[in-house]
Amino acid sequence: MLDLFSPQKVVYNGGIANVKEWKISCYLEVMSGGVPTTNPNLELRDLFLPLLETCDKLFIEWYRQQKACNNNSVMKKMKVNGNDGELKVNRLMTFITRYTPNPGEQALLKHIDGAGKVDGSVVIALPMDKWSSTLEVNSFDGHGGGLTFWDGRGRQEIHYDTRVGDVCFIDRAVWHQADPITKGTRWALVIFYTIQ
């Protein structure tokens, strides 16, 4: 992964979380029309393909449980449309982000994934980089990181101290952030999904 990771500079209209130029992510899959970049890293995507396919299955199961608990009409509508409750997903965008303590690389502050165009997303805390330096240098344990979420009214803040291998499922239009780190390197795989 380290050899194939190559961050791509993306300029967002109006910025995302107050960042107009995002340059710490490497895009494996992009939206139709080449958004946000026209050059996805296909070698890195191929390396991650088994994990991506596993994430697809996990997302479908999570989505089905979410909607069955919260909105039974979604499940009924699926059966009416002839797919007998069978869900299919599309990975709208997939990328790997490397957070460091450097200015502009510490966090992705409060935002909603995909500007509301996604049905949900997955964030996986990837293993720490123990190959380019020692764990003492690259570990961010005790130095920030994790994810913070806000309820629909913005009154309650919920922090999750993520660890390597943790998988987080995020429903559509949920305000959240990748918390700043002050030491080390944090790697995350992010997938935006739409339901077909």
UniProtKB/TrEMBL annotation:
Residues 88-195 form the Fe2OG dioxygenase domain. Pfam families: 2OG-FeII_Oxy_3. It comes from the Eukaryota. PROSITE patterns: FE2OG_OXY (PS51471). Signal peptide: none annotated. This is Fe2OG dioxygenase domain-containing protein.
